Amino acid sequence: MAYWFTLDTDLAIGDTRPITLTFTTAAGAAVPISTWTFYYKAVKVDDSTVSLTVADGAMTKSDSGLGVTDTVTIILDNSATASLTAGRYRQEVAVKIATEPTVIAKGTLNIASRETVV
């Protein structure tokens, strides 16, 4: 399955990192997203009990409802990333427009320990 976005993100434990997704049609027109519900999760590859989620309410939607602006920003904040362990995570964003949530983005979240960051 092809996803709308590929998410590959690097950060260190305790960092804050925004992930912004912009929605447009193939012709470049904005897509109204004000009624969409977004879900973010990252699950550690070698230990599925270690995960991070961000709820829709914590995300910033820049959308007038008319498709004039069309972005959603997911903040991986330092309080959430500080509790994670270093390693590779599978991350994805899903959106619920009318019925069941559909995954629209997948990728890797690489988290480095604070000591390995230069």
Quick structural summary:
This protein has 118 residues and is mainly beta. The protein has one helix and eight strands, in the order ββββββαββ.
How would you characterize this protein structure?
- There is one protein chain.
- The chain is mainly β and 118 residues long.
- Helix content is 3%, strand content 47%.
- The strands form two sheets. A five-stranded mixed beta sheet has the order 1-8-7-3-4, with no helix packed on it.
- The mean pLDDT is 86.
Supply database-style keywords.
1 helix; 8 strands; mainly beta; 5-stranded mixed β-sheet; 118 residues; 3-stranded antiparallel β-sheet
Outline the fold blueprint.
Blueprint: E1 5-12, E2 17-22, E3 37-44, E4 51-54, E5 60-62, E6 71-76, H1 78-81, E7 87-96, E8 102-112
Parallel strand pairs: 1-8
Antiparallel strand pairs: 2-6, 3-4, 3-7, 5-6, 7-8
Helix content: under 10%
Radius of gyration: 15 Å
Give the helices and strands as they follow along the chain.
Answer: EEEEEEHEE
General shape: elongated
Q: What ranges have pLDDT less than 50 throughout 5 or more consecutive residues? A: none
Strand arrangement, major sheet: 1-8-7-3-4
| Total beta strand runs | 8
Instruction: Please report which band the strand proportion falls in: under 5%, 5-15%, 15-25%, 25-35%, 35-45% or over 45%.
Output: over 45%
Mind summarizing the main beta sheet? 5 strands, mixed
Number of helices: 1
Structural category is: mainly beta
* Average pLDDT over all residues: 86
> Termini separation (Å)?
37 Å
